[in-house]
Structure formats: structure tokens, C-alpha cells
């Protein structure tokens, strides 16, 4: 399984203000065209920061979407991979994933037999799982989920890991991977982001 790396360089002239004002270095992963959960909200950032992950995911039923709240699991979490599906049964139990004969590359599915509920996805980064997505609305039927290897990076206030977000008001940079496995971004002395 391929490992992806994101290096985030912060100009030392920016560190004092960012730290004094309580900013967190934030990352979000795109799922189905949306960034709606802070994957990492790190207040211990330094000049050089590194984040690594492979395509490792878990799915679970979650509490409803509320901007500024933390993603909360309402069921057990199960590992899932692309082209697999998990059954969320009528008792509210997420069953183990199995191969989906109709599965598409880059997508996995939750077969929902429970009723109307929200679902969430977590992904591993630097060895630990944290949420990358919470469905904005409760879902009645099945849901196909498409995590994309694209990461948004920004500095946010009160921006803890697993916080649900609608909009990012500060300057950000979107980092696409495609065929590349290592990308580097820099936050310069003028307070702007760039790809290195």
C-alpha cells in the first residue's frame, strides 16, 4: 500500500504570531467533493511538519452534522477499503466489510438497513485514525463514499481534530496528489501558501 507524505514548512517569522494568537495547523481530506471535517488540528506545529498516510479507512454511524462540533460515533467502527461495502444492520451494528462485486475504484459503500441516520469516515494519519467526513444530512438508503487524495491546509482558530466545518475563512492551499506521493507546501514570510 502506497504511503503519501505532506510536508508543511512554516517561515520562522510567522511562528510567534501564529502561536500567540492560538492558531492550529489544519488539514482536511476531500470526500465526494467536500471538505467538512478537520482531519488534523495541530497546535504543536513547528517550522517543519510532516503528515503521512496510506489509503486506510473506517466507517461508522455518527451523530448529526453540526458546524463547530466534534464528530461523534453512534456505532462501532469497521475497517473498509475501496471496492468494499459494510452492512449497517437493522439493530444499529456496522458489520465487517466485504468485497462489493459492483464496487468502483476509489469508492466504498455502506448498505443501510437501519433507517435514517448520519454516517462518517475516518482515515489514518501519522498512525492514528481521525474523522475526515460526516454526512451533512441524515441518509435513509445506501451511501457510496469517495475519499479523494486531496488535502486542504490552513491555519484555524479553535480548530481541533474531528471538528465539523462548513467554510474556511482563512487563506488555504489545496494539495492534489494524483501520481505523486510526496508534496511540500510552504507558508511564507508574507503569510501566503505556495507549493514547493
UniProtKB/TrEMBL annotation:
Superkingdom per UniProt: Eukaryota
Name of this chain's protein: Uncharacterized protein
Amino acid at each position: 500500500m502506497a504511503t503519501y507524505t505532506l510536508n508543511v514548512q512554516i517561515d520562522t517569522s510567522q511562528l510567534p504570531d501564529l502561536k500567540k494568537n492560538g492558531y492550529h495547523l489544519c488539514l482536511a481530506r476531500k470526500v465526494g467533493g467536500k471538505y467538512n471535517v478537520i482531519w488534523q488540528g495541530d497546535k504543536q506545529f513547528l517550522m517543519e511538519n510532516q503528515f503521512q498516510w496510506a489509503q486506510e479507512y473506517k466507517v461508522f454511524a455518527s451523530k448529526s452534522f453540526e458546524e463547530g462540533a466534534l464528530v461523534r460515533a453512534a456505532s462501532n467502527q469497521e475497517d473498509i477499503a475501496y471496492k468494499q461495502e459494510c452492512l449497517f444492520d437493522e439493530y444499529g451494528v456496522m458489520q465487517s466489510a466485504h468485497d462489493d462485486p459492483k464496487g468502483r475504484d476509489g469508492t466504498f459503500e455502506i448498505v443501510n438497513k437501519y433507517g435514517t441516520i448520519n454516517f462518517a469516515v475516518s482515515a489514518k494519519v501519522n498512525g492514528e485514525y481521525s474523522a475526515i467526513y460526516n454526512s451533512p444530512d441524515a441518509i435513509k438508503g445506501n451511501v457510496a463514499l469517495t475519499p479523494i487524495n486531496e488535502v486542504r491546509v490552513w491555519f484555524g482558530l479553535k480548530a481541533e481534530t474531528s471538528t465539523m466545518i462548513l467554510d474556511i475563512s482563512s487563506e488555504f492551499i489545496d494539495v492534489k496528489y494524483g501520481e505523486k506521493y510526496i508534496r511540500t507546501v510552504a507558508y511564507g514570510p508574507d503569510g501566503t501558501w505556495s507549493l514547493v
